[in-house]
Every structure is written in structure tokens, then in C-alpha cells.
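Thread: quick sanity check before group meeting

JM: Hey all, I'm pulling together slides for Thursday and realized we never actually wrote out the predicted structure for the chain we discussed last week. Dropping the sequence here so it's in one place. If anyone has concerns about the input, flag it before I start.
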Amino acid sequence: MGRDLQKLISEMTLEEKAGLCSGADFWHTKAVERLGIPAVMVSDGPHGLRKQDQEGDHLGINDSIVAVCFPAACATSSSFDTEMIHEMGDTIGQECQAEDLSVVLGPAVNIKRSPLCGRNFEYFSEDPYLAGKMAAAYIQGVQKWDVGTSIKHFAANNQEYHRMNTSSEVSERALREIYFPAFEEAVKKAQPKTVMCSYNKINGTYSSENPWLLTKVLRDDWGFEGYVMTDWGAIDDRIDGIRAGLDLEMPASGGENDRRIVEAVQNGSLDEKVLDTTVERILKVIFSYVDHRHTDAVFDREKDHEKAVAAETHCAVLLQNNGVLPLKSSTKVAYIGEFAEKPRYQGGGSSHINSSKVTSALESGRNKNRNLEYVKGFPADKDEQDEAELQKAVAAAVSADVAVIFAGLPDSFESEGYDRKDMKLPKCQNRLIEEVVRVQPNTVVVLHNGSPVECPWADKVAAILELYLGGQGVGEAADQLLFGEVNPSGHLAESFPYQLEDNPSYLFFPGDGHTVRYAEDVFVGYRYYDTKKMPVRWAFGHGLSYTTFAMGNLKLSDKKMDDTSRVSVSVEVTNTGSVKGKQVVQLYISDRNGTVERPLKELKGFAKTELMPGETKTVSMEISARDLSYY
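JM (edit): ok, ran it. Output follows.
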């Protein structure tokens, strides 16, 4: 249905136009019933719906509908699989249509500047190229269903400490090379319906009233067509915000800011044409949903649960393995740690899902008649040592062929609203792992965490499987991965330093509560470790398999390129092992001219391909002039 939005706006009163620029309540836009403008609902949840039918909040406190929790971004990014995340977005888009949700608030693409950021579990990566490609694929999946996405938090929101008012002091080069590209890629390739601005200031100016950010960069440079909304309560001066390019204030402001908009137009300090443009952007997105309702959309929770299980099997990263994995079905295995029975599979705060079902690794194993003994060992929700449980765990490990310790960070250790104090696992878990390894060399550690942890026992254990926060299917996925029903194929989307002090932001994060200096500039994550030749526990892009791969016959389509041409890079990949597996080919560029201070290498291409034993495939990727450029 074609609508004449400008005619519609001409029929609105000044008060109606001002009113449309803020929410009606926590989750709905305002309706103008006399003109046929309906209210629409938005919902939290990049990795599942947090639709709150009753009282709303943005911290995950009140109940929401029963929904399906998919793997969080810390996990999905580790898949290096744009097809998988596109399918996940497609599923969530259909769920939104079935639940009458016009916009899902995500994906979140802020860069993992420090491993301590409390929301790292819902951010993709320390690398902007990977984050951008994953975000664009997810957005295209959701928006196939005429449901909007809200890419967030624009921009330089890399900590929770004083996030409402801290100023991120960062160079334009670092913004353009590190903190903007994921947003830019998503806008140019997928055109999200909305962009959510961050709470913080950037170089002294709030994101919500920053014309350079919201108009010059976002709209003029990148061509963004939708509306910009605030994070919940991320408003300082409402009139400056409209002038800067901020459209929708969320949630409701009790009419106070609506009145200010009316007064500003009446006294001439705000041009009504600017307000009309703001209203038109909002209406365009509202009607793009309202005029394309999919009444046949179904939220099949059982079917979508199976999709969540399958997704996590693509995401988990096998960090190390001396051959103990995969386990044989006849192997006598001791499962130790309460995460085996009560997995931690999602983060805390605004993205918290009321999950339809959760099957633990222990339950999955028992359903398949695995030869398992279970000992709690330590609790999943706190750092508390129980000596009797510890001794039971050691005894179980001695009598088993293999001990599998399900470790991780309790919910309270990482959440929206605060940053972590350190990178450590609970002391009770580290001690138990050390005690078990003493008596059982075949010890496997399975991790449930949203961001890197220090692993002082890593060199002593036989294998480590990183599940991240793998959604409600994480237990079933863990069983399939441990017993070789599925071959792990995830690769780290972030570096795991040996210790927190190695991180390039260590001396500057999180600032003094007023400002935070991004003094490491473009040297974030592996860009720093590689350039400094600093060893890490596990590198960005690292991931093992139950098979082996060989790569060779690298070819370029051309030896020269200019600003407009593209060069194709191809390589042959062979599965040299005995089982089917997926390999992630990663393409990095390196500056050989020494023209400017640049990182040693930067990711500029990746492709995931599945190979049968002995099979060879040719994988191709393209490089553009922009991929080789610096700002």
C-alpha cells in the first residue's frame, strides 16, 4: 500500500507531531487514531523475544512471554557463519510477526574494547569487520519479515560504568576504523529500520544530540534511511536532539518533552520542517510494518528450540584437545559442576528471555543412556566451596575414565548495568579443577561464560570446550559436541589474554566516571597483541576440530588494483582427517608500505565451508580498496 506521508503529516496538529516523537509507554509508540496512525510495539531481544505484556522494564526484572532463547552474540559471532545467523534472524522475524512486534531491539555491535565490559556477552567481537558482517546478515534475516531491527548502541558504548554520562574520548581515526565500521556495514548492506543511540557522550557531546554522529556520519556519509531512537532514557536536551537527528525518545516522558517540542516550534527555536522530517521517518517505519502484516506467521516454540540447539553446535569453540574428545558412548564419564544440571545460557539485563524449555547436558546424556555419574562439585550461582562436594568430585574423577567439569561464570558475575572487576572464574571452580586434574589426567573443562576468563589450569587439562552463553539449547548441543555427534567448528571472535593486565585498555578502562580515554586508539584486541608480539592464551580466530584441514594454492585474480576495482582471493581447502567437519578460512591484510602506524594484520574476509574426509573445495573472497585503507 502506497501512503502519502507528507499529506498525512500536513493533517496532523503540532501537538500530534510532537507526541509521535516519544513513546506512549515503555514499549509502544503513540497512536493518532483520528488519522489512522496506530501504535506499534517494540521488544528487547537480539537473541530472542522479551515481549512484556504487563509492566515494562529494561533490566529484565519483570516477566515476559515464554519465548525461545537463541545463543547470545558472544556465541553466534564465534560461528563465523553468516548463513547461520541469517537463519536465526529469519526465525526471530517470524516470531515477531506472530507476536505483533514491529521492531526487535538489536543487534548490539559495540566493540569488545575490554574483556570486563558487563554487556560483552551481547556484543559480537573485538573485530569490526566480523561484527559488521554478522550484524548485516542477522538484520537481513529479521527484516525479510517486514519487522524492523534497531542496531545499537551508537556509538562508543564500551562499558557499563557510568554509561549514562561518561564521555568516550576517542580519536576520529579509531572511531572510523574500529568503532563505526560494524554500524556502517550494517547500514549500507542491510539498512536496519532503526538505529539506537547510546547513553554516553563522545568527545564531550551526548550521542543523542550529536549532529556529526546522527546526521553527518549516519545519514550523509552512510545513507541511513530509518529513524534514530534513544536507548531507554538516553535523552538530555530534547530540542538539541531533534536538531541533531534524533527522532524517537523511548520510553514515555510523561508529556514533558512533547510540550518542549511544541514550545520550541512556537517560539521559533525549532523549525517545524525539521520536526516534520522527524515525524516522516517515524511514520515510514511504522507503516512499513503495519502495511505488511504476516497473519500466517507462527511462533512454533518446539521447532524453534531445535533451531536454537543446532545454532549452538555451530558456535561452540574447541579451544584445546589432546585427543580425549570426542568421548565414546561406552566411556565411563564423571560430570562435575552444577552447570551440568543448570546451564548458564544467557546474560542478565534487558535481553533476558523467559525460555520455553532448557535441557541440561546431564539430562541430554541420561536421555541417550550415556555412562554418566554426576557430582555437583560447586554451585552454578555463587562462589562457595563445599569441602564434602569437592571430595565427592575427586572420588568420582578417580573412578571414571574421563572427568568433564562444567565450569563458568555465575549470573551475578556479568550483566548489563555493571562491569566485571576481573577476568577470574570463581575460586571454588579453579580449586576444584586443580584438585581433579591431580587425580585424573583425562579432564575436560566445558565453559559457560559471556566473555574471556583466565584459565590458570589450561596447560594441565586434556581438553577445553568453550560454549559461551549458548541459548536454551546449550545442554543438548554440549552433549552432541562432547560425544562427536557434531564436529565443533567455532572460532574465537575475541582474544583470550593470559591475564587482564595484558589487555591494551587495562590502564585506561573504565575511566574516572566523567571521561574514559581510548588511549590504545586503533590497537584493540588482536591488533595490539599481534603488533606487540605478545603471546595470548588463545588468539582471535582460534578454533579446533575433530578433523584436520590443509590449505594451499592461494591465488589472486589480479596483481594490481585501484580505488574502484576488486581482487578475488581463492584458496584450496582439504579435509585431511577422518570425519566430516567445517573449516573457517580467514583472510587478513597487512600493510607492507609502512605509510602509517598500523596493526600488524587485520581481518578482511572469512568463509565457512563443510568438507567430507578427503574432500577439497576452493574458497573465494574479495578485497576492495576500502579493505586496504586507513583513515
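AS: nice. The chain is about 30% helix and 20% strand. Residues 118 and 419 are 4 Å apart (CA to CA).
JM: adding both to the slides.
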